[in-house]
Amino acid sequence: MKYEPIYNELIKYMKTENIRLSEPLRDHVYTKLGGKADLFVTPESIEELQAALEIGKAHDLPLTVLGSGSNVIIKDGGIRGLTIGMGKLTNLSIEGERLHAQAGAAIIEASRLALDFGLSGLEFACGIPGSVGGALFMNAGAYGGQISDVLERATVMTQSGDVLMIDKGDLELSYRKTTFMDSDYIILEAEFKLDTADPVVIKAKMDVLTEARESKQPLEYPSCGSVFKRPPGHFAGKLIQDSKMQGVRIGGAEVSKKHAGFIVNIDNSTSKDYLDLIDLVRTTVKSTFDVDLDTEVIVLGEDE
């Protein structure tokens, strides 16, 4: 498909620098992997997002929505159609004990703003390297906390451009799972209900969690974070380590020597390397311990 006419329609509504053809998606995900997006747009307002959706729908383009890409693997063939990056919708605000965060805001920044206002509840998120929208999409969590603990409601957009508010009780939130995974909603904003607390106590907890993350996780290499969900009664990293998979490589991808629950892009890995290694880890753990490892990472795009 020729995208120049669609590009010309889009520039009536948004800045040219926010509309890109054949955009390398490895520049937009933490793994630094993957092919190109045919058409990549980054709206700066709800109105621009609505315009992009309307134009994409008029041209019957497949739609993909991308947050900060911390928990995503883009295949080597890239993504066809329209890819919308939410990374410029980043407003954060406080009303009393409620924190409002647009989908593109970093969840780490939301936790820091809560600290500034003496609000407790988001300390667990101080080291999660993702956007608010992505964290809500998968009910992200760490160190005993998760998004569902503090979420009050979400504001979403349908693919027809309508804006809706959905209460927490209607989102079917469970461990690394939400209604969003089975819907076409685009997350616009999350509203968190927090508790007033001593900022000194909040910061002390955040410092402990930050030190734990930095000392245990392989932050020196690109990765998608923790690859696997926690299997009932087990820890994924321990199973992988005991299966003698730690340090195993395929191409440029390696099971981290620092934390076996991570797969790192250690030397110009392809997405195929990375995904093949994930499959090998799952197969090995299954044959060794008869435990199924389910991934929490989202895989998008096409094979090369």
UniProtKB/TrEMBL annotation:
<keyword id="KW-0285">Flavoprotein</keyword>
<keyword id="KW-0573">Peptidoglycan synthesis</keyword>
<feature type="active site" description="Proton donor">
    <location>
        <position position="226"/>
    </location>
</feature>
<dbReference type="Pfam" id="PF02873">
    <property type="entry name" value="MurB_C"/>
</dbReference>
<feature type="active site">
    <location>
        <position position="176"/>
    </location>
</feature>
<keyword id="KW-0560">Oxidoreductase</keyword>
<keyword id="KW-0963">Cytoplasm</keyword>
<dbReference type="InterPro" id="IPR036635">
    <property type="entry name" value="MurB_C_sf"/>
</dbReference>
<keyword id="KW-0131">Cell cycle</keyword>
<dbReference type="GO" id="GO:0051301">
    <property type="term" value="P:cell division"/>
</dbReference>
<dbReference type="GO" id="GO:0005829">
    <property type="term" value="C:cytosol"/>
</dbReference>
<dbReference type="InterPro" id="IPR003170">
    <property type="entry name" value="MurB"/>
</dbReference>
<dbReference type="InterPro" id="IPR016167">
    <property type="entry name" value="FAD-bd_PCMH_sub1"/>
</dbReference>
<comment type="similarity">
    <text>Belongs to the MurB family.</text>
</comment>
<keyword id="KW-0133">Cell shape</keyword>
<feature type="domain" description="FAD-binding PCMH-type">
    <location>
        <begin position="33"/>
        <end position="197"/>
    </location>
</feature>
<dbReference type="GO" id="GO:0009252">
    <property type="term" value="P:peptidoglycan biosynthetic process"/>
</dbReference>
<comment type="pathway">
    <text>Cell wall biogenesis; peptidoglycan biosynthesis.</text>
</comment>
<keyword id="KW-0132">Cell division</keyword>
<keyword id="KW-0521">NADP</keyword>
<dbReference type="Pfam" id="PF01565">
    <property type="entry name" value="FAD_binding_4"/>
</dbReference>
<protein>
    <recommendedName>
        <fullName>UDP-N-acetylenolpyruvoylglucosamine reductase</fullName>
        <ecNumber>1.3.1.98</ecNumber>
    </recommendedName>
</protein>
<dbReference type="InterPro" id="IPR011601">
    <property type="entry name" value="MurB_C"/>
</dbReference>
<keyword id="KW-0961">Cell wall biogenesis/degradation</keyword>
<keyword id="KW-0274">FAD</keyword>
<dbReference type="InterPro" id="IPR016169">
    <property type="entry name" value="FAD-bd_PCMH_sub2"/>
</dbReference>
<dbReference type="GO" id="GO:0071949">
    <property type="term" value="F:FAD binding"/>
</dbReference>
<dbReference type="InterPro" id="IPR036318">
    <property type="entry name" value="FAD-bd_PCMH-like_sf"/>
</dbReference>
<dbReference type="GO" id="GO:0008360">
    <property type="term" value="P:regulation of cell shape"/>
</dbReference>
<dbReference type="InterPro" id="IPR016166">
    <property type="entry name" value="FAD-bd_PCMH"/>
</dbReference>
<dbReference type="GO" id="GO:0008762">
    <property type="term" value="F:UDP-N-acetylmuramate dehydrogenase activity"/>
</dbReference>
<comment type="function">
    <text>Cell wall formation.</text>
</comment>
<dbReference type="InterPro" id="IPR006094">
    <property type="entry name" value="Oxid_FAD_bind_N"/>
</dbReference>
<dbReference type="GO" id="GO:0071555">
    <property type="term" value="P:cell wall organization"/>
</dbReference>
<feature type="active site">
    <location>
        <position position="296"/>
    </location>
</feature>
